[in-house]
Amino acid sequence: MHNEIYVNTILAVWQGETEEEEECNEPDLYRVLWVQRNEDLVIMINTKEEKGYKPYPEMFSYSMIQEEMKAGNIEKTVISIPKIHYPEHQLSPKDKQIRDQRWSYLNRLASKENVPHIFYKHERGRIVSDLHKETGISKVLIWRILRRYWQRGMVENTLLPDYDRCGGKGKERASTNQKLGRPNMQSRLDQDVVGIIVTDEVKHIFRVSIARWHHKREKRTFQEVYELMLARFFNDGFELIEGKQVPILKPNHERPTLRQFKYFYQKENNAEDMILSREGSRRYNIRYRAVEGNLKHRNFGPGSAYQIDSTIADIYVVSRFNRKWVIGRPIIYIVSDAFSSLIAGIYVGFEGPSWVGAMLALENAASNKVEYCERFGIELAEDEWPAIGLPEVLTTDRGTEYTSQYPKHLKRTLNVELEALPPFRPDWKPVVEKTFDLIQGLVIKWIPGAVLEREKERGETDYRSKAILDIHEFETILIECVRYHNKRFLPSYKRSPAMIEDEIKPTPVNLWQWGIRKGLGALRWVTKEELRMNLLPSKKGRFTRDGIRFAGHAYTCVTAEQQSWRFRAKNKEIIEVEYSYDPRDTSIIFLRHEGGSFEECYRLSDLYESTKANSFYRYEEDLDKMVYEEQLSRNDQDENIQDRIILRTKSAAIVEEAKQKTGQAIKGMNQTARLKNMREKQWQEKERERQTNNWTIGQEQPSKVKNNVVPFHMNVNPQEDRLQQTKADLLRKILEEDEES
């Protein structure tokens, strides 16, 4: 059956006598027009359509062709002529008109009544002559159309015109002294302004201009590039206009047209190179590259590949210590399963973008979500968020947190392979990228404190001042977003035939559970201790007399209390410790013992269970509180310093004033005269103070002696008045005399 010959079969006939000659030459391709096995006859025509070559039907022996095919000298092949198979709507009206016109008279020649007579020379000449006499169509045209009909497959569409083969498309036209292309209107009116010929020199200018101004990131339009080229290379000099040298362009017929410039560019450049040069490889790969499938083909099941990424939430939150404080925008980390689009884990906080934030999100992905949601007062069924375990591959971007030494530790300890994508290729982890868009657009943008896309207008309230959620409340909302996403219908998800057969509704939870039931993926379960050991951040420090100092709190554990670590530390013993902590909850930390085990450490201040229940604060919140207290203390100390400066300034001013007054008073006095009768002078000053500042009941101000009033004394003798001094004054006087003696 392989060597059977039918009408329209294409045979490749090798003409060489030896194998070397056959390899050097191309075969002749023949199309079978008629087959008569009982007469051992095959009529074929050469399909070569070169100019000047006029093949006619030839007769061959059927048995001979069979033998040559067995010997390998003749082979079956195929000739493709795409235009013959075009549907009607792709053909132009003109093409269909020409085809139908040609078929109107050619169908007489190709009718069954004329077959096989028309394949014979004498019969064919008679039939063509009769058609010429009836229609008046030239024999040359009839012969050309009939030959094409036979060579191309003997169907009506073989009569379509070959306009697509006209004009030498894609071939460089030879340069001549005459301008090529259609003459413009101006040259038709005046033969002296035919226009410029695009010579090799002009082409060089075109190339230089395109490279200099068009293939740049400035993204100039083609019109701008054309004008810059004219000003630079096609000017008749410069003219001083308003103090500036302005190029004066040549006349129209002495410079290339925009159409010539565009034609040259389109002929020598392709769209891909243009976009690469103008946009750069990053924007090209994201926005313009051809889509070559998706990543689903390599994701065999749940946990085969997780995608992780972070973003800054478009919302401002307040502090839980003082809701008057707006503390900024939190970081969101999301871990998504590439197979099912299920959100496997999240992290919300102010830790990041960093390796700690990424590992906390991965720890959340590998942990029990029921326990996690209980901390937020959310009752969750296990099948609502079933992701528990570590993936085989974690797909990341080129962030600094993934290019440090930590990823090696993750591979060695938990056997999680990190796959870093090329720079600026977020389209290679579309699952997690689209999840961010969903969460930000679905909920966050409608919450007070959300970042507005437009800038704040004059007189409008700043959206940051509208913040009302704290970090704990924001994470609660985010958990609800995750619950919604994991059960939502994915209209663009391409289900496999097995999923369609099992009638799996394309929701992340359904896809995840289906993959687990089928035993797909490479999800691995790890203990909570292993996660804490390898994913939580750790610190080294000393056990002090107050315990382990961390985030403004003191921690201790059962081992420390049994072995009296606080007592030993107070008595100068150095106890080195290493501990891990969860930045999402500082109520406990984890002491790492030398054998690799963990022990929970509790706060010394958490003496009662009620206190512990209210101590769920994040590491960042404790740090904020410490920073606030430190800042407050620093501000108060700064205020003290300022007050002391004011005090010194006032004191110095008073001293300076006193210095001037005293200096004026003692001018001309010696030291002995100034120190003479010091006790008497002190007594006189004391008496003056008493009289100036004395007060009685019912008087709001000290009484003052008027100049025109003579004071009345019970004892008018000054000497007796002096004897009425109090005992305290006498005693003080005696002591002063003793000191001087």
How would you portray this structure in words?
With 741 residues, the chain is of the alpha+beta class. It is elongated. The protein is built from 26 helices and 20 strands. Mean pLDDT is 76; it is low at 290-298, 607-615, 702-710, 712-716 and 718-727. The longest helix is centred in the C-terminal third of the chain and has 47 residues, at 619-665.
How do you describe this structure in short?
With 741 residues, the chain is of the alpha+beta class. Helices cover 41% and strands 15% of the residues.
Can you summarize the main beta sheet? 6 strands, antiparallel, barrel
What is the mean pLDDT?
Answer: 76
Principal-axes geometry comes out as: elongated
Oligomer: single chain
Count of helical segments?
A: 26
Taken as a percent bin, the fraction of beta residues is 5-15%
The total beta strand count reads 20
Kindly state the percentage of residues in helix.
40-55%
Low-confidence segments? 290-298, 607-615, 702-710, 712-716, 718-727
State the separation between the terminal residues, measured CA to CA. 150 Å
Task: Provide the spatial order of strands within the biggest beta sheet.
Answer: 15-16-17-20-19-18
Rg is 50 Å
